[in-house]
């Protein structure tokens, strides 16, 4: 064991003696290693051997360049719930900072890659257990959506996954989870029946409505504030091929698309086989906007009734087809490759053609001075908050449209003005939806910017309840903003 430990320290430091650690590591990449984590990493290496390593982000998918450039003292890849419990025990004993990485699609340092501490990378935890009734599956929290879809497709089953292959199940489902099945069943989090959770004191809890009603409530949207989830037991449903794909349109089709989006959100809401979202994006190379509509239909029908009018609008190109969910998710991933600098921001409002247009126009006005920024690509995605999701989570309120502003750019020097742009868009769009009497308070945590406070949007009573539950399960504050796991959104 001593040998493994010393080999680890040597690799970890790039130097021999452990005494020189702090200084040698002080400037590794753009993050200093926290001294208390040197001890934690040595201990983890002695237990986990090559599954605890210091080479940074090798063989790991991280979507955003800001997280890719974040260096941890070490990484560790647990294979079981017991491993996660052991790791958390070591981390707490050494008071080392840490982050938990699912699919790595968060956008800021410390969200899921620890800045100078330990990154717990869940990618080895990809089990799938399907009981004989095939109504639920117990799945490891380290799945990305593609690995989960592929595993379930062997049984002709699927689940409430999202659209993009390499997004992690962990972050997606702990925040909410918009799926092509959401019109039928609600958000993904509304379809988790049981969680296996490593609590902030490193013990393991099986959390369901009966065993821990408070924690069960808290985990549905509570993100990384209550411990580390190792397994989800969630709904699965039968699925063969479905309709999916995207159709792209030139800017002159905007009025027609806006009208169809409104019709799909309101008049067709009772056809719960249908889901869709659409986007309005600026393209630097053509100095113009384009629109794209993603069609989804649970059944293998090529032109189902809800999309008939939409399909009459002439398009530039289309990938709409019948296919497996897994393959559709690979297509979506190819449209959102990793590597750029990104931010998300969101507003929610009652469905309205005028408001869709106005918040798109706000984006168009606010980008004027940014158009030449290298790699700049702002895109506004709008999708319904489905009634099934509203029924399942009453706190989310009435019928709504959820807008997600995504901004992609290339250079770190532009970070500040990109953040300012997103904030300006949020403020003006929020004011516009309020003026129209159609503002909806809910902010989807997985679409929110760091300047927004999605937990506040859950409502005062829910927020107080979440904070009380956190005090009970985490009296030391390990998962709080002053604790050891500080990234993403804190209560
Ligand atoms: C290209 C792209 C496509 C997307 N498509 C969709 C979509 O179709 N529908 C939708 O609803 N959302 C979508 N999102 C948003 C997505 O759900 C969130 O970004 C989500 O948080 C990503 O999860 P992750 O595991 O990949 O990220 P990570 O960065 O690994 O994790 C995000 C947060 O969750 C925490 N976390 C992860 N796993 C665990 C765990 N097991 N226990 C405790 N905490 C954990 C992390 O610590 C981190 O704070 C998309 C995002 C991107 C970038």
TrEMBL record:
PROSITE patterns referenced in this protein's UniProt entry, alphabetically: FAD_PCMH (PS51387)
Assigned protein family: Belongs to the oxygen-dependent FAD-linked oxidoreductase family.
Gene Ontology molecular functions: FAD binding; oxidoreductase activity
Highest taxon of the lineage: Eukaryota
Keywords per UniProt: FAD, Flavoprotein, Oxidoreductase, Signal
PANTHER family: BINDING OXIDOREDUCTASE, PUTATIVE (AFU_ORTHOLOGUE AFUA_1G17690)-RELATED (PTHR42973), FAD-BINDING PCMH-TYPE DOMAIN-CONTAINING PROTEIN (PTHR42973:SF13)
Ranges for domain FAD-binding PCMH-type: 68-239
InterPro entries: FAD-bd_PCMH (IPR016166), FAD-bd_PCMH-like_sf (IPR036318), FAD-bd_PCMH_sub2 (IPR016169), FAD-linked_Oxidoreductase (IPR050416), Oxid_FAD_bind_N (IPR006094)
Organism: Aspergillus pseudotamarii
Signal peptide: 1-20
Protein name: FAD-binding PCMH-type domain-containing protein
Classification lineage: Eukaryota, Fungi, Dikarya, Ascomycota, Pezizomycotina
Pfam family, one: FAD_binding_4
């Amino acid at each position: 064991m001593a040998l493994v430990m010393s080999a680890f320290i040597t690799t970890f430091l790039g130097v021999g003696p452990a005494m020189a650690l702090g200084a040698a590591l002080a400037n590794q990449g753009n993050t200093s290693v926290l001294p208390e984590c040197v001890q934690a990493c040595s201990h983890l290496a002695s237990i986990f051997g090559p599954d605890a390593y210091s080479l940074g982000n090798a063989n790991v998918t991280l979507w955003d360049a800001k997280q890719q450039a974040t260096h941890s003292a070490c990484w560790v890849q647990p294979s079981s719930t017991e491993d996660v419990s052991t790791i958390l025990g070591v981390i707490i004993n050494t008071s080392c900072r840490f982050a938990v990485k699912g699919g790595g699609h968060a956008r800021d340092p410390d969200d899921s890659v620890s800045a100078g501490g330990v990154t717990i990378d869940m990618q080895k935890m990809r089990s799938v257990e399907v009981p004989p009734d095939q109504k639920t599956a117990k799945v490891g929290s380290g799945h990305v959506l593609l690995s989960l879809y592929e595993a379930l497709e062997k049984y002709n089953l699927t689940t409430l996954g999202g659209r993009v292959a390499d997004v992690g199940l962990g972050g997606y489902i702990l925040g909410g989870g918009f799926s092509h099945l959401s019109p039928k069943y609600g958000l993904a989090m509304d379809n988790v029946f049981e969680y296996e959770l490593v609590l902030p004191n490193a013990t393991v809890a099986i959390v369901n409505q009966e065993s821990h009603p408070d924690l069960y409530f808290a985990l549905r949207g509570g993100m990384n504030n209550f411990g580390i989830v190792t397994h989800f037991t969630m709904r699965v449903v039968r699925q063969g091929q479905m309709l999916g794909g995207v159709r792209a349109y030139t800017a002159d089709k905007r009025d027609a698309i806006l009208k169809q989006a409104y019709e799909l959100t309101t008049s067709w809401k009772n056809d719960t086989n249908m889901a869709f979202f659409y986007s309005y994006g600026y393209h630097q190379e053509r100095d113009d906007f384009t629109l794209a509509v993603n069609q989804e239909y649970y059944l293998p029908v090529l032109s189902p009734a809800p999309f008939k009018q939409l399909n009459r609008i002439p398009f530039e190109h289309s990938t709409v087809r019948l296919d497996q969910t897994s393959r559709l998710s690979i297509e979506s991933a190819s449209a959102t490759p990793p590597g750029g600098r990104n931010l998300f921001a969101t507003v929610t409002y009652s469905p309205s053609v005028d408001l869709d247009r106005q918040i798109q126009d706000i984006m168009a006005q606010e980008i004027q001075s940014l158009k030449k920024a290298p790699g700049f690509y702002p895109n506004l995605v709008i999708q319904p908050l489905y009634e099934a999701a509203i029924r399942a989570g009453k706190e989310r309120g009435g019928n709504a449209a959820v807008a997600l502003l995504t901004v992609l750019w290339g250079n770190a020097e532009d970070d500040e003005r990109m953040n300012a742009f997103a904030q300006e868009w949020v403020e003006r769009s929020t004011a516009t939806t309020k003026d129209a009497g159609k503002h909806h308070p809910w902010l989807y945590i997985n679409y929110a910017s760091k300047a927004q406070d999605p937990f506040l949007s859950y409502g005062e009573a829910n927020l107080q309840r979440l904070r009380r539950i956190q005090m009970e399960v985490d009296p030391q504050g390990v998962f709080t903003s002053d604790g050891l796991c500080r990234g993403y959104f804190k209560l």
